[in-house]
Amino acid sequence: MSIDFPHVLEHFSLFLSALFNNKVVLTILVTFLTLGVKYALVKTVRNRAISKGKDKRDLVNNIKNFLNFVMLFLLLSLWAGELQTFALSIAAFAVAIVLATREFIQCMIGFFYLASTRPFRIGDWVQVGDIVGEVSETDWMKSTLLEVDIHKYEYTGKTLFIPNNAMITNTIKNLNFLKRYATHHFNITRDQSVNPYLFIDQLQQKAELYCEDFKDVAHRYSQTIERRLDVKIAGPDPHINVSTSEVGDSVVTVAIFCPTERAIEIEQKLIKDFMTMWFAAKRSGNIEPREGTEVSSDDRQPIS
């Protein structure tokens, strides 16, 4: 039986051609060949360095780096076409993904921002933009707030879901100290037919009386806030000021440092006292004199 060597050589040539046209095989060959050359060169240089008693670590390091670069360059050249197509596909796909999910990505970034900076904790009162509420829950996408009417210091019954990216783009105010005690301000406006200074001292006494039962606690709490915030806050004693409005009416401004749940109650009591004193002064004739008339000291006596 004779062997057809030309036919065998032809098949072997076709096999080698197909083998070397396979990029996976070439990648394996280039990798093993480069690693083999690197190993051999490094071992040879080290052996010669040991025999001569010289330090060749720098040369060994340069050989490693150079052969690693050669291997990477050959592999990139081998797969350049595929890498370019893959990169373009990935870039287009990545852009589409980012555009479609950018809000979700921003929310996740906002979550990491909140977790790292800790501007508030669960249970704190916060203001985000114009929204005020108590933080009840946070997750990767949103923060859940129970809406609070900051003027009445009470829950509205509404639940707010704020995306975490809004926590980055808006100013966050931590109102946690207002949850227990607050410096409550309110104004009482009347015409100038009665001089409010006739009974302002009595109104001050009424305010102090209404705040008497929690005065010590309010004083300690205000000191705690001042130490933590390193600022001076109004209180805990009530403050009453008199001013005028743009149209010339008398405006009495009251500031009381009190428990949030009692702020509206004390406000209503003081408004009631003010109205009682104001109308009593008006009925008794203790009113502001007209221009050009003189006022005796008796006319300025406060009412009993």
Automatic annotation (TrEMBL):
Pfam families: MS_channel_2nd. The keyword rRNA-binding does not apply. It is found in: Membrane. InterPro entries: LSM_dom_sf, MscS_beta-dom_sf, MscS_channel_2nd. The chain crosses the membrane at residues 24-42, 63-80, 86-114. Keywords: Membrane, Transmembrane, Transmembrane helix. It comes from the Bacteria. The keyword Membrane applies. Residues 110-176 form the Mechanosensitive ion channel MscS domain. This is Mechanosensitive ion channel family protein. It comes from Paraglaciecola chathamensis.
